[in-house]
Structure to design on (573 residues):
């Protein structure tokens, strides 16, 4: 067996396309997941996140392109549960089995030590409920059991699809700390979530997709500052400055305070240069980095731009892939 | 492979379905045995072709009625594979074993083992009933190696039923269709086609081949030929189940 490069991505997706009949769920998607990092996987509902994860994990076959884990297709991994732990939204449990029975069966099939069952039950604080049948579990308990199953093989890579679903605030906080510690120990996490505030606190890098295609990939801060940073300005001559900014192509909104403006789509340095050139005095010049949520909405074109003023409208759900 | 088989047997063992089905094997077998013993040798029984149980061959044929266990093994086998679709547990199974064909083989083997157990119990129920009937008369039931062979033959037929149903289930998504399909084949289609074309019965998986093992004679195939045909049927069913499983995306 040839030695694997350590700088090789934990996950590498190249030119991935997945079609379900006439519907294209993933369209020529390419990205990499760096080792030792928490990489967030963002996209609106129906954007192809779960389908991509299923292809990465060998549960669905790509129509075109490739997806590799640790340099190989998932199916080619030796003792895969010891390399990759996965929690998918669609994965279920037999309601008639207990949580412990589920984990024991997975450990047997995966060639893992039975002692790991109690260890992971302790990790997700489920030992007290392990001998109850799953049909009596709450959604949060099922999610914890799914996390326990993902951790069973003490893997070096976690692939988690909406792991915070159903968890109570304490569980979400635990998950945040756990994922951070997992990556800090040199392991890798690839996680999708709709909890953008949680993602902002947890992830190092982002892969943002929309309609099955890559929108942006990179460090969180680079994406939020490049995509969604605004410049706040206050000037006694705001009208002249607004004209200069709009001539530069910036989107300018007038604030409630007299003389205050917010400019988007222009660098803070350029705002200063334009003010100087126009002879406008500035009382405030400050950049405001947008939240991950704002960046996500702008990247995916769902920031409400162009909608009528007044009450916000919920955008229609995209067509499901199958 | 052994670990996978152990895991698949554990999947069957950790749900309550197999207990319910085994109770069904015992209940239906006991009911049939008691009813048969009640009229065996009576004018009504003789009219229905039920002769008194007096010889080892009579006991052997009576034990063969335990092959009703095969119907319960069919249900268990069909459920063993389709329940993973129903409860969305197949993803977890294939994450542990991404090379899918061993999973199908392990399910078939596990279902065959459960079917064998059902068959042994199914055969023992009429044997115990007739032994009790003789004991009530202060006599010992006629017994010989052919009776032991009949118990094993019933168990083998039931194991075959469990295995082929598991393989068929691997090729289907719906649990209901799988259960109705295997039962419909065994109870309805074989009977209908057999009534229209009696010469074909010897080739049928259940009314032909499994009966050839437990009740040899008549127009049925010899036991070795029946065993070979069962292996062919099972091989085709397993190949089909594997082909569908490999080609299918998992939810």
């Amino acid at each position: 067996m040839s030695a694997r490069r350590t700088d090789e991505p934990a996950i590498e997706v190249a030119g991935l396309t997945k079609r379900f009949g006439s519907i294209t769920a993933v369209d020529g998607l390419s990205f990499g997941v760096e080792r030792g990092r928490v990489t967030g996987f963002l996209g609106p509902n129906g954007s192809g996140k779960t389908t991509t994860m299923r292809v990465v994990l060998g549960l669905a076959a790509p129509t075109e392109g490739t997806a590799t884990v640790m340099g190989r297709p998932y199916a080619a991994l030796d003792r895969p549960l010891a390399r990759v732990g996965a929690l998918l939204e669609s994965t279920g449990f037999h309601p008639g089995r207990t949580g412990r029975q589920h984990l024991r069966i997975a450990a047997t099939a995966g060639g893992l030590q039975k002692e790991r069952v109690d260890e992971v039950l302790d990790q997700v604080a489920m030992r007290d409920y392990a001998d109850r049948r799953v049909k009596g579990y709450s959604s949060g308990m099922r999610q914890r059991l799914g996390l326990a199953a993902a951790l069973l093989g003490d893997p070096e890579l976690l692939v988690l699809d909406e792991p915070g679903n159903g968890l109570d605030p304490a569980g979400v906080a635990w998950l945040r700390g756990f994922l951070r510690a997992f990556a800090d120990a040199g392991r890798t996490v690839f996680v999708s979530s709709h909890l953008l505030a949680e993602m902002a606190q947890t992830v190092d890098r982002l892969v943002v997709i929309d309609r099955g295609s890559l929108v942006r990939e990179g460090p969180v801060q680079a994406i939020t500052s490049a995509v969604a940073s605004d410049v706040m300005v206050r000037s006694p001559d705001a009208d002249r400055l607004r004209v200069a900014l709009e001539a530069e192509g910036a989107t300018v909104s007038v604030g409630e305070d007299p003389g205050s403006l917010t400019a988007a789509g222009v660098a803070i340095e350029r705002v200063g240069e334009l003010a100087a050139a126009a002879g406008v005095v500035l009382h405030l010049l400050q950049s405001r980095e947008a939240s991950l949520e704002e960046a996500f909405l702008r990247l995916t074109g769902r920031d409400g731009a162009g909608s009528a003023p007044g009450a916000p409208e919920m955008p229609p759900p995209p067509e499901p892939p199958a | 492979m052994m670990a996978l088989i152990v895991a698949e047997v554990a999947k069957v063992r950790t749900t309550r379905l197999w207990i319910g089905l085994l109770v069904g094997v015992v209940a239906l077998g006991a009911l049939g045995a008691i009813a048969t013993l009640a009229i065996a040798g009576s004018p009504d029984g003789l009219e229905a072709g039920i002769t008194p149980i007096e010889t080892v061959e009579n006991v052997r044929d009576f034990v063969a009625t335990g092959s009703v266990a095969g119907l319960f093994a069919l249900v268990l086998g069909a459920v063993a594979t389709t329940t993973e679709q129903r409860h969305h547990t197949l993803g977890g199974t294939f994450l542990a074993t991404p090379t899918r064909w061993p999973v199908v083989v392990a399910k078939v083997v596990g279902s065959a083992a459960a079917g064998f157990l059902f068959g042994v119990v199914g055969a023992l129920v009429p044997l115990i009933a007739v032994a009790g009937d003789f004991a009530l008369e202060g006599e010992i039931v006629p017994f010989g190696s052919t009776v032991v062979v009949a118990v094993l033959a019933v168990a083998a037929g039931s194991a075959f039923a469990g295995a082929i149903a598991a393989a068929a289930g691997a090729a289907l998504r719906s649990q209901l269709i799988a259960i109705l399909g295997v039962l419909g084949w065994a109870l309805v289609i074989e009977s209908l086609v057999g009534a229209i074309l009696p010469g074909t019965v010897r080739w049928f998986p259940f009314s032909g081949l499994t009966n050839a093992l437990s009740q040899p004679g008549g127009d049925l195939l010899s036991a070795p030929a029946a065993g070979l045909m069962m292996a062919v049927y099972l091989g085709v069913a397993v190949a089909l189940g594997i082909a569908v499983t490999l080609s299918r995306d998992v939810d």
